[in-house]
Amino acid sequence: MKIIVCVKQVPDTKEIRIDPEKGTMIRKGVPSIINPDDRHALEYALSLKDQDSNTEVVVLSMGPKQAKNALIECLCMGADQAILLSDSAFSGADTWATANTLAAAVRKLMPFDLILCGQQAIDGDTAQVGPQLAERLAIPQVTYTRAIQLEDHAIVVERQMEDGYEVVKAALPALITATRKLNTPRYMNIRDIVKIHQMDDPVQIWDLNYLKLDPDQTGLKGSPTRVKRSFSPTPSSEVTFLTGSTEEMVSSLLDALKNLNLIGK
Amino acid sequence: MEFSLNPTQMMIQQMARKFALNEVKPTAADTDETAVFPWENVKKMQRYGLMGMNMPVEVGGAGTDDISYVIAVEELSKVCATTGVILSAHNSLFCDPLLKFGTPEQQEHYLRPAASGKKLGAFALTEPNAGTDAASQVTRAVKVEKGYRLNGTKIFITNAGEADYYVIFAMTDASKGTRGISAFILEKGWEGFTFGRVEEKMGIHGSSTRELVFRDVFVPQENLLGQEGEGFKIAMVTLDGGRIGIAAQAVGIAQGALDETIAYIKQREQFKRPISQFQAVQFMIADMQTQTSAARLLTYQAADAKTRGLPYSDLAAMAKLFASETAGFVTNKAVQLHGGYGYTREYPVERMMRDAKITEIYEGTSEVQRMVISSHAIG
Ligand SMILES: Cc1cc2nc3c(=O)[nH]c(=O)nc-3n(C[C@H](O)[C@H](O)[C@@H](O)COP(=O)(O)OP(=O)(O)OC[C@H]3O[C@@H](n4cnc5c(N)ncnc54)[C@H](O)[C@@H]3O)c2cc1C
Ligand SMILES: Cc1cc2nc3c(=O)[nH]c(=O)nc-3n(C[C@H](O)[C@H](O)[C@H](O)COP(=O)(O)OP(=O)(O)OC[C@H]3O[C@@H](n4cnc5c(N)ncnc54)[C@H](O)[C@@H]3O)c2cc1C
To answer: Do A30 and A79 reside in the same domain of the chain?
Structure first.
């Protein structure tokens, strides 16, 4: 079985600071991490490999050269092969162009049985790349996965809904997007850390040429999205926090509501 | 000279730190309270390649250098000194002598399972009347057909009862003094080999410290480690390496206490301001930080020399002496800076202060380290 896991390197949003003047994220000095949902996607793939050593796990990422580090970490967790799609032509991609580029790489990796993505990236946050990738490849997709059962040439997936869950069966090859409920990701293994660091090039780099992609289909050029303006929303009303004991807070609340004529005096 | 970690060491630090914070820290207080050997965490350490990490890949280890191993012991000991010493005893006191002195058969049979995290090891030298004076061994191994018959007791043995395999020392020829001591590999469960008294200790509560009892234990010839009479040398060489692990444990305890203290003084307010704003407090932190960093550098230096195959006996002794006394100093100040709260079990620094003390005692007391260091210096 061949499994492709799409992994995005993202800034650790726990450490994010916003430039007060430009209103944009300060990326400098912010540590980069594997997108948290993608760890759960990888863990599922690795758990299948634990059960069947013939399983091959390929991790795939599009990003700048430094995204190599995220892929090395995946290899140290037990992935077999890592591919970084990196080319100046890929930069500035929106989800459409990202999915195009990833799809071109997946076609080079055919045949495969399963593609796993995270549900969403903590920086872009759109949750679109997985579904778009499945559409490009014309394969079934199941999003918001919280549990998976593997069957012969099919998967049965529990989809997390707001008020319950759905059970969906899909034929393989298919794409699923993983939620944090799916599993607990493993740590890197010391044995793999040593082994991977002894290799000259543990991560393969694929560029535009190699993918034979039309430059108009990737990067900024291939992105129909135009960001018109980005801003931090200003709070539209004032908030007063009530403090004190429960009794005090309740009586202040009653007073406030009375003063606003929302309840009778 | 390079004063930064290489990419492998950095990644091992990242892994060990995350593992320690997520898996070990949450259970550390409970391990101390219940004094139960933390098997669940040890199994995870086996799974992730920590147990036996600095053994070569050819014998089943992960093949790291000794600085990486020191980093792992340090990260674990920052949150739980018990877990740190379990790793140190296994890697340094059991695996290392098998790597250095074991036959290919012994390495296949005992080292591979230990280095690949399937079995746990221990090392037994100390006896009721042979502590610092380790040469006055009373445990006897008498030559019999196809092997030896062992009688005697060992005390204060780390991982005892929990470990599967033991490197033990016994007198094979009392007339030869230190040259009459030999080393053997024993397996838990062998007839006549039992475990006695469990020590109740000041600190490292979850670490097992127990008596070994040998009553006519038959040890096959192939389980003699090294040559007959080579035991004392094996013990001393092994302890040289073990001291690097204990130094790392001490650095970890000190750093852990320092981290807790810095967080505490920033939020504890007296006289309407955080106590971190008092210069007397700041200067104490400066001393704690400086000594901890110096201890770490000495420890890395000894580990680096060991990996490079250079002499490290005195370097290891200096690292262990300085790091263990630093752990004592820093944890004491950590409790001081926590005030009355620091003396309670509500905060981890109380446990850290109790845990720190042992690093000045086992694998050679501070007095022994000073003897080793001065004999190298004076000649
Ligand atoms: C502030 C901001 C606003 C943006 N606004 C828009 C917008 O409005 N419209 C738009 O189309 N784009 C937008 N983008 C760009 C877009 O988010 C990213 O460029 C796109 O590549 C990835 O989308 P995502 O981060 O939302 O990922 P998601 O779709 O949330 O990611 C889901 C999963 O897809 C996979 N994946 C995503 N990216 C990669 C990758 N590079 N390599 C491998 N796998 C990957 C991962 O498995 C991930 O968990 C914005 C970016 C930012 C930072
Ligand atoms: C928790 C714990 C775990 C241990 N784990 C192990 C283990 O796994 N394997 C093992 O073999 N042993 C182990 N030990 C034993 C440990 O190594 C010894 O306790 C230590 O070496 C000291 O020996 P002792 O207790 O007999 O003290 P003693 O030798 O009686 O020393 C008492 C004091 O006298 C001082 N002293 C002794 N001789 C001299 C001298 N010539 N000059 C100056 N001062 C001197 C010592 O420094 C010390 O301060 C462990 C002990 C403990 C407490």
So the answer is: yes
From the CB of residue B301, how many other CB atoms can be counted at a distance below 10 Å?
Answer: 17
Contacts 24+ apart (CB under 8 A), B45-49: B45/B19, B45/B83, B45/B86, B45/B87, B45/B117, B46/B117, B46/B118, B47/A189, B47/B117, B48/A187, B48/A188, B48/A189, B48/A190, B48/B15, B48/B19, B49/A189, B49/A190, B49/A191, B49/A192, B49/B117
**Ligand 1 pocket residue status of A124, Cβ below 6 Å:** yes
Average pLDDT of the segment spanning B212-238:
98
Q: Please choose from B154, B321, B361 the residue to mutate so as to test ligand 2's pocket, defined by most ligand atoms within 8 A of CB.
A: B361
Q: For residue A36, is it within any domain?
A: yes
pLDDT tens-place string over residues A4-35: 999 999 998 777 777 777 666 677 778 899 99
Does residue A144 come out as left (phi exceeding 0), alpha (psi in the -120 to 50 range) or beta? left
| Chain B contact present for A47, CB below 8 A | no
Q: What is the pTM of this model?
A: 0.91
CA A215, A216, A221, A223 torsion: positive or negative? negative
> In angstroms, what CA-CA distances link B29 with B24, B76, B80, B346?
10, 14, 8, 9
Token reading at B76? 């674990």
The torsion angles phi and psi of B172, rounded to 5 degrees, stand at: -100, -25
Instruction: Select from B361, B365, B357, B367 the least CA-distant residue to B81.
Output: B357
Whether residues A262 and A167 fall in one domain: no
Domain of A28? 2-217
Q: Is the ipTM of this complex over 0.90?
A: yes
CB pair distance less than 8 Å for A187 and B49 = no
